[in-house]
Write a structure and sequence with these properties.
- It is built from six helices and no strands.
- By secondary structure, the protein is mostly helical.
- Helix 2 packs across helix 3 and helix 3 (62-91) runs antiparallel to helix 6 (128-156).
- The longest helix is centred in the middle third of the chain and has 30 residues, at 62-91.
- It is elongated, with a radius of gyration of 23 Å.
Length: 176
Amino acid sequence: MNQPPSMLKPALISGIAFGIAGSIPVINWINCACCALVIGAGLFAAFLYSKESRKMGAAFGPGNGATVGLMAGLVYGVVSGIVGGAISAAFGMGDWQEVIEQVQASGADIDPAVIEQISSFMASSGGVVIFLIGLFFALLFGAIFGTIGGLIGGSVFKVGSSPGMYTQTPPPPPVG
């Protein structure tokens, strides 16, 4: 039986490309459509892996697609978390004081002690907590939706085993 190709290369290519796209402002709005970029990362990784499987004569199906999609989703999560955090830090996005002022201006009934506690926590921890929370959710959603994209890709780009890989005993001759 032929050795299946490595899943690492398709997962890295797809995860890095879609992770960078998913962290760019405005382009990342595509994820508002059911996490389309993350699903696309899994789908594209499955496509790349199916091409490699076809070249090597190995079988490729939904199970393999889900696995390579999961890997691509995790790479997507790491890349989009890190690049998105760097972009937010570079352009000053995520200013919590503005968020608190907007919440107060909206007329929400929040205890001033709670607002003060949140403000002091954010001032003392800086952006590290926000970065870690963003990275956690990027990994979580990347794993879930990347697996879904890989599963879809495994069904769409299915590759059967090449002839001669399995030997099958012919059926016995008919009696009578």
